[in-house]
Design goal:
Elements: H1 14-30, E1 42-47, E2 53-56, E3 61-65, E4 70-74, E5 77-81, E6 86-89, E7 96-100, E8 104-109, E9 114-118, E10 124-127, E11 134-138, E12 145-148, E13 151-155, E14 161-165, E15 172-176, E16 187-191, E17 194-198, E18 204-208, E19 216-219, E20 226-229, E21 236-239, E22 244-246, E23 251-253, E24 268-271, E25 274-278, E26 285-289, E27 294-299, E28 303-309
Antiparallel strand pairs: 1-2, 1-28, 2-3, 4-5, 5-6, 6-7, 8-9, 9-10, 10-11, 12-13, 13-14, 14-15, 16-17, 17-18, 18-19, 20-21, 21-22, 22-23, 24-25, 25-26, 26-27
Length: about 300
Amino acid sequence: MPRVKCGPAARRTRVAGIFAVLCSLIVTVVGPAAPASALVTTVCALSADGTAVYRYDGASWIQLGRAANRLYGNEFGLFAQTDTGFVRYLGTPFNWQSIGSSSNATWAVSQYALYRLSADRSSVWQWGGSPDNWIQLGGGPAGWMYGAAATVYTTTPDGQGIRYYAGQGTVWRDIPKAGAGGAADLAYSARGGRLYAIDSGHHAWLWSTDILPDGGWVQSFNGQEIIRLTDTDVMYGVRLDGSLMTASGIVLTTPTSPFPISDANVDVTLTGTGIYAASPQRDSVWRWTRKNQDWVKISDLATRQLVACP
């Protein structure tokens, strides 16, 4: 687009005045560009012995870094907890930036932000974008923390409910537990702007503000009994028979399939290029192909953890 000058001289004629108005409109409509999160395009892995971090490029594994205790990945980036600190991957192999201490209860990466729960579980902090720059959000005391889309959730220590950050100051909103009676919910998982829960009877629920305008729990996973929700970028559940299914009811594995996934070892993640999973023995990585409706082994890499990453 050619540059249009909006100086005082341009206002000396009516025509120039029209151009001045147009300039003002262009600035108003276009405005500053908003930062965009990177796309989750593949899967990253922590080696079985914890000594290396890898990224799958579609054909092979590229080593990105050395020793780590746990990985955290999403559109917002790839992060790792190490013995010496919490680090952020800067886009080229072995190029990581320390952004904080490793002494926290847990971290959560959403589509747009990184959060940490303090070691004493008294408060949630959001990363401010530079080393050791953290903004306190409140949210404590908390039992655990989950990140999703544009917000973050914390559970109450007694297990009787969960709350979410309202997006301003230290204001949080309470959500009641999904199950009826006095028993606490067994688990929560928040992904893609949705919050799921498993009640004490192993029934899966979705918190909905679409079906119920004031918010409420609606049954999910086609009413199947679920014993575990996967901690990945898409929602999967393990049924009582050990099979893996999506929240919409699609069964991806069964106990008799060539690639069963047990409750003791679920590690499934969704990226822009497919669904990836570690074998139950952790000695290989597999990819679900929609074309063949089956799992295909992509490597014999032994892993401790898989996460989605840009």
